[in-house]
Structures are given as C-alpha cells and as structure tokens.
Specification:
single chain; alpha/beta; 2 domains; about 15% strand
Length: about 280
C-alpha cells in the first residue's frame, strides 16, 4: 500500500505513531514528484490488524494536525464568531468534547464516539486500496464527521456562554462582597452537603440562624433560591476571613467560594477542624 502526504510534518507524525502501534510494519519513504511524500507499507499480507494500525495512526495525524483548523473554520464560518479570544476558548471546549475520555465530555456528546467515527472513515478508505491520499480523504471524505463536528461545536458554544454567565455572576458577587461591611471577622466552613458553619468559638450555626442572617442581605438580587446553603450564607455574612475545611479542594462549590472571596479564604484539611463536627439534619 502507498500512502501519500503533502506535509512532511504529517509524514513524521504518522510514522512515529504507526511504529508505536506495530513495530513489525516496514515503511519506505520517498518523494513523488506529483503527489509529494510517498510511504510504501511493506507487510505481507495486509491483514485487519495492519489496517487498524494504519487507520488509528491516520486518526492521530488528523487530530494532531488538522482538527484545530477545521474547528476554527466552523466557529468562524458557521457560527460567525470573530473575536480571537472567544474562538480560542470555544475551540478548547470543542476539542475536549470531541476527544475527551472523562465522563463529563462523554455525557455532553451523549456517549457518541467521534474518534471511532474518524477511524471508521479511514478504514473504509484504506481497505482494499493500494493507493491512499491522506489529503484527499481529509478534503472529500469527512462529510459525516464534519456534520457531527458542527453539532459538537454548538455544544461547546453553549458551554462557553454558560461559563461567561457564571464568570459574570462571580464578578458581581465579588464586587458586592468587596463593598459590603463585614458582619463577622471569621467563620469556619466545613465541606459537606450542604456546608456547615461554625463561629469562632466552635458553635455550629443552625439553619434558622443562617436564614435570619440571609434575610438581612439583598440576596434576591443574585437569584439565590431560598434553600441555597453553600454560598448564600457567606455572601450575607461577607466575613473578613473564611477558614474552609475540605477533603477535595477541586470541588466546584469550594472553588466558587474561593473565586468570590479570593484571599479571604484559607483552605485547610478536614482532619484539622478543631471542633466537634455534625452535619445538618435533612
């Protein structure tokens, strides 16, 4: 089988990856005057294992060298974004949705497998073919993948807008807290569902006490529901200092508090909580 690439970089990318896939494959590289870089695959017979190795490597070349420009083109031409920063952020989200292996990205794309679709496309073109032109497949054989890609980029734009709205919300809270007179100098917060709040002497604040505190602040301006017990009490108190005792600092609720209160927050390990801990009754 002969595989042609116009780009030297893509030839090297393919060779490195295909050798990782199958060290028994022998490849002869020469330059064809008409078609550019020519790779001749020397393996007898060309069985399904070899086809899979070649297809996976072509997918790797495509994702590494072509996907970025295709996504950028769709963002500009199909969704009419022009701001460089916005395009780059949407690209990052789209690439994550398309290639991500974590549960969040899988859920967003409803557990579809765009990378497997790419592999199926390349397999279709290389089976029973003695000559394969990578650039030709990319230009003319990606209709199904690009159709899905437009949808995934739409999902990425939705995520981007949600992130922008969330950041705007955080900025509003941050400004409010910055200008509000603190009600207390220090509060101890223990991670949980919901968070628990303790005074400087280690007494847990009840939900009745928290609700009375929250009534004194215009929390309705921020759209907090009445049963929001993680962030709203802190916004109402606007303490000078927050000691947070957590097991997982990456918890989104914890990160939100850090983003709003910034240097006022001191993260500590849950095991360092100096008082007796008890969660709220549900």
């Amino acid at each position: 089988m002969d595989i042609f690439f116009e780009s030297d970089k893509e030839v090297i990318c393919f060779c490195e990856h295909v050798f990782q896939q199958n060290k028994q494959i022998a490849v002869h590289w020469q330059v064809n005057e008409k078609w550019g870089n020519q790779l001749t695959i020397n393996y007898e017979p060309l069985n399904e294992i070899i086809f899979q190795s070649i297809a996976v490597s072509l997918v790797h070349v495509y994702i590494s060298n072509r996907l970025r420009s295709v996504i950028h083109e769709i963002i500009r031409d199909s969704y009419y974004f022009t701001d460089h920063h916005e395009i780059e952020k949407i690209y990052e989200l789209a690439e994550w949705i398309v290639t991500g292996v974590d549960e969040d990205s899988k859920m967003l794309r409803k557990h579809k497998h765009p990378v497997q679709l790419l592999r199926a496309i390349f397999l279709m073109h290389i089976r029973n073919a003695q000559t394969v032109h990578f650039d030709s497949i990319v230009q003319f054989g990606m209709k199904a993948f690009k159709k899905d890609l437009v949808h995934y980029i739409g999902l990425a734009i939705d995520e981007f807008k949600r992130e922008e709205e969330h950041q705007s919300f955080i900025n509003t809270l941050r400004e409010y807290v910055h200008t509000k007179e603190p009600m207390i100098p220090l509060i101890h917060v223990v991670e949980g569902s919901p968070f628990s709040y303790y005074s400087t002497v280690g007494r847990q604040l009840s939900k009745i006490e928290l609700r009375n505190i929250m009534k004194k602040a215009p929390l309705y301006l921020f759209g907090f529901p009445e049963d929001e017990w993680n962030l709203a009490p802190l916004i109402a108190m606007a303490p000078e200092k927050i000691n947070m005792y957590v097991d997982d600092p990456s918890n989104p609720k914890t990160q939100t508090i850090i983003n709003v209160f910034q240097e006022r927050v001191i993260l500590k390990s849950f095991k360092d909580f100096p008082y007796t801990y008890s969660s709220y009754e549900h």
